[in-house]
Amino acid sequence: MDRRRSPLAAALAATLGLAVLGAGAVTAQDASSAPAPVPLRVGLGYIPSVQFAAFYLADAAGYYRDAGLDVTFENKIDPELITLIGQGAVDIGMGDGTSVIPARSQGIPVRYAATIYADFPSVVFAKASSGIASPADLAGRSLGIPGKFGTSWVMLQALLGSAGLTPDDLEIVLYPDFGQGAAVGADAVDSATGFANNEPVRLALTGEEVTVLRVDDIVPLPGPGLVVGDATLAAKGDALRAFVAATTRAMAEIAEDPQRGIDAAFARIPELAAEPEAQRAVLEATIAGWSNAYTEANGYGAIDPAAWGATIDFLSGLPESPVAGPVSVEDVITQDLLTVEE
After folding, report:
1. Is 6 exposed, middle or buried (0-12, 13-18, 19+ CB in 10 A)?
2. Are 58 and 267 spatial neighbours (Cβ–Cβ below 8 Å)?
3. What secondary structure does DSSP assign to 218-266, as a single string?
4. What is the third-level CATH fold of 7-119+222-338?
5. Buried (b) or exposed (e) across 157-171, using 16+ Cβ within 10 A?
6. For the chain, how far is it from start to end, CA to CA, in angstroms?
7. What is the DSSP string of 107-165?
8. CATH 3.30.70.3270 fits 122-213, yes or no
9. Bridge partners, residue 72, by sequence
10. 115-171 residue pLDDT tens
């Protein structure tokens, strides 16, 4: 895959570089005159993971610091994080695109501000020996899922709908502790939802042949990305723009040299070093998910409005739609943090 940065990504990196040089000049002249760093509370996923290597690298390499930011990471589950971002308790965080649309329709003032996963990562997976090779094969089988909410639930409905099925045609087994991947490995369930860069990767490392069912060809759902609240966007726009530039810079550098991501993740979470092969496999799958044709043309972080329009239509048309009222693409995304101001 061609991972050359687009003009947008290059412009963001140049802007960040100028900020770094400017900060150094101020320090050399008079350290006391440098402005205080802007604090940013950043929400990531449920647990610390190598999947967040870009954030760890940007922090460890000083990209956030040099951009005048004081970043604090917090780990939250998606429903909790979306609410906290809307309240302004978290400034920016990794949220599911399919969570932003229902939240906005319910009056929660959040917007999707930068794409991290350009390829939708939520999948259904199973051992190849189960005989599950297509969505139609899920009929009458058991499937593990953390809960009937969020991205995995939306994805599952899309997959099943493509085969004329509904969740009622399966035995749904809940794993609120996110243990559904281990359940597939132990044959406790026939299949499960998971992320393309996590559970099926780990299962394959055990020597098992794995079948992965993706929703991409059915509906172009937006993957997880950076989400902000309206009030925070208005109050800390410059700081948030610098944060996005620093993060996408780290993504590009890790794509060129994955070892930098591994090193940053291991330094942040030393226990990950106990399974280096698995962590590298997860990171490589994560890097692959950062890019698709749209981001290859427009740069890391770019948001595809057409895909968001298709997702709004899909979610609104579900039998038990999570969308409470009409929303437009303009309601749920902002491209302000991807722009370089003159």
Report:
1. middle
2. no
3. T------EEEEEHHHHHHSHHHHHHHHHHHHHHHHHHHH-HHHHHHHHH
4. D-Maltodextrin-Binding Protein; domain 2 (3.40.190)
5. bbbbbbbebebeebe
6. 32
7. T--EEEEEES-SS--EEEEEEGGGT--SGGGGTT-EEEES-SSHHHHHHHHHHHHHTT-
8. no
9. 41
10. 999 999 999 999 999 999 999 999 999 999 999 988 899 999 999 999 999 999 999
Task: Supply the Cα-derived Rg of the chain in whole angstroms.
Answer: 20
**Hey, what amino acid is at 243?**
F
* Residues in the chain with pLDDT values less than 50: 1-29, 31, 341-342
Q: What pLDDT was estimated at residue 20?
A: 41
Distance CA 294, CA 220 (A): 12
* Distances in whole angstroms, Cα of residue 280 to Cα of each of 48, 202, 205: 15, 11, 11
For 278-313, what is each residue's pLDDT tens digit? 999 999 999 999 999 999 999 999 999 999 999 999
The residue ranges of every structural domain in the chain are 7-119+222-338, 122-213
Residue 53, both tokens: 């290597």
Structure tokens at 7: 């003009």
Q: What are phi and psi of 292, to 5 degrees?
A: -145, -175
Closest to 50 in 3D by CA, of 240, 276, 223:
276
CA distance 274 to 31: 41
Global confidence as pTM = 0.86
